[in-house]
UniProtKB/TrEMBL annotation:
Keywords: ATP-binding, Membrane, Nucleotide-binding, Transmembrane, Transmembrane helix. The keyword Iron-sulfur does not apply. CDD domains: HATPase_AgrC-ComD-like. The chain crosses the membrane at residues 186-208, 220-247, 253-270, 282-305, 317-333, 340-357, 369-388. One of its GO terms (molecular function) is identical protein binding. This is ATP-binding protein. Residues 509-607 form the Sensor histidine kinase NatK-like C-terminal domain. InterPro entries: HATPase_C_sf, NatK-like_C. PANTHER family: TWO-COMPONENT SENSOR HISTIDINE KINASE (PTHR40448).
Length: 620
């Protein structure tokens, strides 16, 4: 039942994400769309407007007179995506003239007209004079008021699958249009810079995380999205060309291919032969085919334009289907945490497809981005969450691995120390009879001076034995054995009081980090002093009433009064101060505290961890 409940929750989340994405795109369609901006409207080649209409940008959509050869008709901008779809049209490659007369009622003034993105060669004439051509920028000034103003676009297409005036021009006062350009540039700058930043960051993670493929694919996805959103700047700079459009279209398809790759990797399906040797190569081949089609096939074979359109639409549907299949497999395998990301991406992608189908080529953003660009940005944000989650997992794995290495090292060193101590014990036991005979002889002879000296020698040998036992807790005992032995080997005086049960509810990784940092700092602080100094470590470690207490005092370099930071003894200053935050972090994790005091050549650590009640029965 729990598994079914989780699956239903994931599916409900996917439905919510789909609904929210679709609602946002619907909001953009209604409130940030040139086609729904409202009157005034053009009719039969005339666009009439007044001064009161200039409180917002005006969009020249309806009523354009279009002439291709001997055929003339009236159309709205966006009604036909290429010349082949015009009445009587046979090929996307031709020359068309778009004409509109502006009839303005109001005081004469000069307005700014935005030239929308035109994919091929064009010339714009105002009252018969050429004012702009391909590569001249995105806006021109046009006079209105004294007489009617005649606009004429002459557009020649001999290479692209889009023909003519695809997006409507906009006119308005200089102030209104400057604000429009600024907001739109700001939106696309945010999209591009965000994507490029995430791409760079993911590539750094890819290198840092032993070249994990997930981060590489996410980096490529972000890079593809940044390329896709660069069209605004390319058009403004007059750099549009067949090569750019080929790169732009390829980036759109490559973004979807990387979405699928991330989904497959997340579901651990990347080792499947059908994906490695068929699906993945096919998606990359499709991207290559897209580039070749725009650059070479369509210019040579205009009739392939429709096939190219079907290919693009089919590719999108297949990628969406592939993501849905991957999410379904993940659900069946109950990879719950990762499926939420894949299902969300499926929902966003699906909402984008439905929105694109539903707008019927009657959407062009005023201030914001296109629907597929919103979808791409949301997908990047979702996958960024996935990357963050995966990176946290890898950091935790590295931490666990480091702790395991420490535990193994401590265990080996503890075993070696135990073996050395046992050897000493065996030697003492072997010599015990000899010692007893010698002691009896001195006693019988009344030579108490030699008897005392002999006993002192034996007592020193006993003191030199390496301690085998500090605590019932294996990990704590191992850590203490290791670090206190290091201290004794460097003539550091060690005193200890340890009363800890054999089980504690704290995680071994946390205990290891907590105690190792305290003892490591203490040993390093003593070693920084000269050999002639009084070097000592006094440690108390005990468990009482659900709390693990530790008090560690060690000799240290005297601190300077004006220096508020604790002095470092590390050869690498960049690693200074890392131990104290780690101690504090673990203390806070277990609702405890950790205080540090450095004064008069002595460093003191007082800390405690509040552990679960289940260990109270071990209190000593």
């Amino acid at each position: 039942m729990k598994a079914h409940g989780r699956i239903l929750l994931l599916l409900l989340t996917a439905v919510i994400v789909f609904t929210l994405t679709f609602a946002l795109m619907g909001f953009a369609y209604k409130y940030d769309n040139k086609y729904t901006a409202g009157p005034p409207y053009g009719e039969d080649g005339v666009f009439a407007f007044s001064e009161t209409d200039l409180d917002h940008p005006i969009y020249l959509i309806d009523g354009w007179r279009v002439r291709i050869g001997d055929i003339e008709s009236t159309a709205f901008i966006g009604e036909y995506s290429n010349y082949a779809y015009f009445p009587g049209g046979t090929s996307p490659f031709d020359t068309a003239t778009y004409e509109m007369t502006l009839h303005y009622s109001g005081n004469p003034q000069t307005l700014t007209m935005e030239i929308p993105e035109i994919y091929t060669d064009y010339t714009l004439r105002v009252n018969g004079s050429v004012v702009a051509a391909k590569g001249d920028g995105t806006s021109v000034n046009i006079p209105v008021g004294d007489t009617d103003t005649h606009l004429e676009f002459t557009i020649t297409n001999d290479a692209h699958y889009y023909s003519g005036l695809i997006y409507p021009p906009a006119i308005g006062t200089s102030q209104i249009m400057t604000r429009l350009f600024f907001v739109r540039t700001l939106v696309y700058s945010i999209l591009c810079i965000s994507a490029l930043t995430l791409a760079l960051f993911s590539m750094v993670l890819w290198i840092a995380r032993s070249k994990k493929g997930l981060f590489r694919h996410f980096g490529f996805l972000c890079l593809a999205f940044a390329v896709q959103c660069s069209h605004q700047f390319v058009w403004q700079l007059g750099l549009s060309s067949a090569l750019w459009y080929a790169v732009e279209d390829t980036a759109r398809l490559f973004l979807l291919a990387e979405c699928a790759a991330i989904g497959v990797l997340t579901a651990d399906l990347d080792r499947l032969r059908i994906y490695r040797y068929f699906a993945r190569p096919l998606t990359l081949l499709a991207c290559s085919f897209c580039f070749v089609s725009v650059m070479f096939i369509i210019p040579v074979c205009p009739s392939s334009v429709n096939l190219y359109g079907y290919f693009i639409d089919g590719y999108k549907l297949i990628m969406w289907g592939l993501l849905a299949v991957v999410a379904g497999i993940g659900l069946s395998l109950q990879k719950n945490w990762s499926n939420i990301f894949i299902l969300s991406v499926c929902s966003i992608f699906g909402a984008s497809l439905f929105a694109t189908i539903g707008d019927s080529n009657k959407f062009e953003p005023i201030y914001g981005a296109w629907q597929n660009e919103y979808a791409g940005f949301f997908i990047i944000l979702v996958f960024a969450g996935l990357m963050a989650r995966r990176n946290i997992e890898l950091v935790q794995q590295e931490k666990d691995f480091h702790v395991l290495k420490l535990q193994n090292r401590f265990a080996v060193e503890s075993a070696q120390q135990m073996e050395d101590a046992m050897s000493q014990v065996r030697m003492l036991k072997h010599d015990l009879n000899h010692h007893i005979l010698a002691l009896n002889a001195y006693f019988d002879a009344g030579d108490y001076q030699r008897l005392g000296a002999y006993l002192s020698t034996l007592n020193q040998q006993r003191a030199d034995l390496k301690p085998l036992y500090y605590s019932e807790h294996f990990l704590i005992n191992t850590i203490l054995t290791n670090y206190l032995e290091i201290a004794k080997n460097h003539d550091i005086k060690v005193t200890h009081k340890v009363h800890v049960p054999n089980e504690l509810s704290a995680a071994d990784a946390d205990l290891c980090t907590f105690i190792v940092n305290i003892l490591s700092n203490a040993v390093e602080g003593c070693l920084a002093l000269p050999d002639s100094a009084d070097r000592y470590i006094r440690i108390e470690l005990f468990y009482r009433k659900g709390n693990l207490h530790i008090n560690c005092i060690n000799s240290a370099i005297p601190s300077k009064k004006e220096d508020k930071k604790f002095p470092t003894t590390k050869s690498d200053p960049t690693s200074h101060g890392l131990g104290i935050p780690a101690i504090r972090k673990i203390a806070e994790k277990y609702y405890g505290t950790a205080t540090f005091h450095h004064e008069d050549g002595q460093f003191t650590v007082n800390a405690f961890l509040h552990l679960d009640d289940k260990t109270w029965n071990h209190t000593t």
